[in-house]
Design a protein that fits this description.
The structure is a homodimer of 345-residue chains. Chain A is α+β, with helices and mostly antiparallel strands. The first copy, chain A, has two domains: 48-157, PurM-like, N-terminal domain (60s Ribosomal Protein L30, Chain: A); 173-332, Phosphoribosyl-aminoimidazole Synthetase, Chain A, domain 2, CATH 3.90.650. Chain A is 28% helix and 23% strand. Chain A has helices at 24-37, 76-89, 110-127, 182-192, 208-214, 231-243, 258-267, 289-297; strands at 49-50, 57-64, 70-71, 74-75, 93-105, 131-139, 147-157, 173-176, 221-225, 246-250, 281-284, 306-312, 320-324, 330-332. Chain A has a seven-stranded mixed beta sheet, with helices on both faces. In chain A, a hairpin with a 5-residue loop joins strand 13 and strand 14 (330-332). Chains A, B: Residues 169-315 form the PurM-like C-terminal domain. Chains A, B: Belongs to the HypE family.
């Protein structure tokens, strides 16, 4: 009878906060530990996976551990719905159903739990997706920090769409559906009492309607990616890596709201590394750029859509993201290493 | 901008450990807080839900918070697979795909995480179900107890099967696929250092093959239920409630291994309330009882299958479970109130 844990790693190696930050450490954990255990192959890591033998159905799962539970613009309940709906949308899928699993710390105010669940329910109804099943576990005081929510979503791909992180091609236009940096700075400002809460609200929102508006582009829509953990820098690096291309971004074109810039300045953060929960990068064929921008701007959640860059051939440097700065210099934007903003989603 | 949590409940009310125990408090939380927030209707609460618009696909989700992570007979990784596969199986479904979401405490040994994931991967391969997507979140030291896993499963119902907690009818035979009490007492004994670890191992195992063996029964297979949290008492009470019947159980027929009985004696637990992770109750039409027992006993995981009782008409007491004791007395088996065994799964 095995009761001892069969450990093979040197004892000193431990999980760091950065392993959950969506950057290089996360990729290492995934490639070095998680995928080998599951017999997974290396390949593009998508936001949602095709369900085997089920045609156009996709599945995604996400744990939400954001602290505090309520922040300007949202809360863990609405975030859990939007994050999962968006992961489906990034595969070109409309949401069909959600499941919700709660891990609750003993002693959490029931009224608070109720408020979170009400917000979650409202967000789901707003998207038009039913919560069809769930689970609740309670752990003792001190064994969890108040409330964690894991949401899993099933969606159906829109006909003709098959965006993939591996789909970018030289010449493609790189669009952004709205300003960056709002979610991460809103949460951090609230948590640390920095006083930006009056000026900054999370951008948490569902993106599936924007994706539906892009559906007429068909296979000229190459990549959809929402820059959550690790921010725009991580999202673009993943696409550059999985597509084997260079992505060239014009710094002046990237919309950073002034309060976000001020908060990042104070905190020593790069806005490109800050998590977002309501915008996405869209890669389209060159001749589809104008139509895509018009489609995005036709909806309230896409009024701020802009073109921020272009896809270039690899030229010996596949996987590279380059920023053209305001003064004309060019600098490489690396994958963020680890954790700048723990428990941001 | 809402940053305050809009709480409606009196401040004193808090989540108790018992709210996660699978008994009456869990039902109260579900019916009073969770379902209203999601706009859910009262009705049979099944282990897995039908995916809307997707024919015969079902979905289930489960959080695993067991402590310790390794216990006699299993670990949190294999348990996470078996528990989810079994929830699908209880709806008559074979597993198609799993997702795995990890919440990890900063500082967890990487080798331990690897061992858990390896076990999870092996369990999934054993069942023949792929892990197709996942998520990893890391929270700071003290914000979680080492490792929580939330597994979501998608399955396809076997043709002709539609077992439901509401499907029991007077006259049906009540079967049990194997002995009860092993999982809960194994975990608790390890955790509390009671010294039963040498005699008791968790029964954690997948039940989908047993269900496939029962498939030829078609609609004569009425109910499948695995008695996890809350034990056999909770499972039978749920079926009695959702089917509006009385369930009559013969105490002498319920298999309780002697070490389980001894451990329960020491701990002051009722074996009927102790969680299981590898047996199930099966309700079948009277003329199918022998065929069902033969089918169960044809597989290693069902060699201990027995008939433990019968379904009786409600007679003014729908929802009641009655135990005929060894000395011929009859006592009502209530739904367990709350938590006897926190973090057992």
């Amino acid at each position: 009878m095995i009761t001892e844990c069969p450990v093979t790693r040197p004892e000193g190696e431990r999980v760091l906060l950065g392993h959950g930050a969506g950057g290089r450490l996360t990729a290492e954990l995934l490639e070095g530990t998680v995928l080998p255990a599951f017999g997974g192959r290396a390949g593009p890591l998508e936001d949602a996976a095709l369900l085997p033998g089920s045609g156009d159905l996709v599945m995604t799962t996400d744990g939400f551990v954001v602290s505090p539970l309520f922040f300007p613009g949202g809360d863990i309940g609405s975030l859990a719905v939007h994050g999962t709906v968006n992961d489906l949308a990034m595969r070109g899928a409309e949401p069909l159903a959600l499941s919700v699993a709660l891990i609750v710390e003993e002693g959490l105010e029931l009224g608070l739990l109720e408020a979170v669940l009400r917000s979650l329910g409202e967000a789901a109804r707003g998207v038009g997706v039913p919560v069809i099943t769930g689970d609740t576990k309670v752990v003792g005081r001190g064994a969890a920090d108040r409330l964690f929510i894991t949401t899993t979503g099933i969606g159906r791909r829109l006909p003709g769409l098959s965006p993939s992180a591996a789909g970018a091609r030289p010449g493609d236009a790189v669009l952004l559906s709205g300003p960056i940096g709002l979610h991460g700075t809103a949460v951090l400002s609230t948590r640390e009492g920095l006083g930006f809460e009056a000026d900054i609200a999370s951008d948490t929102r569902p993106l599936h309607r924007l994706v539906a508006a892009l559906a007429p582009l068909g296979d000229r829509l190459r990549v959809l990616r929402d820059p959550t953990r690790g921010g725009l820098a991580a999202a673009l690096n993943e696409v550059a890596r999985d597509s084997g291309v260079v992505i060239d971004v014009d710094e002046r074109a990237v919309p950073v709201p002034p309060p976000v810039a001020a908060a990042c300045d104070l905190l020593g953060l790069d806005p490109l590394h800050v998590a977002n929960e309501g915008c996405m990068t869209v890669f389209v064929a060159p001749d589809a750029a104008d139509a895509a921008l018009a489609a995005l701007r036709s909806l309230p959640e896409g009024t701020g859509a802009v073109r921020v860059g272009d896809v270039l051939p690899a030229d010996g440097h596949p996987g590279r993201v380059v920023l053209r700065t305001a003064v004309g210099a060019r600098r490489v934007i690396d994958m963020p290493l680890g954790e700048q903003l723990p428990r941001i989603c």
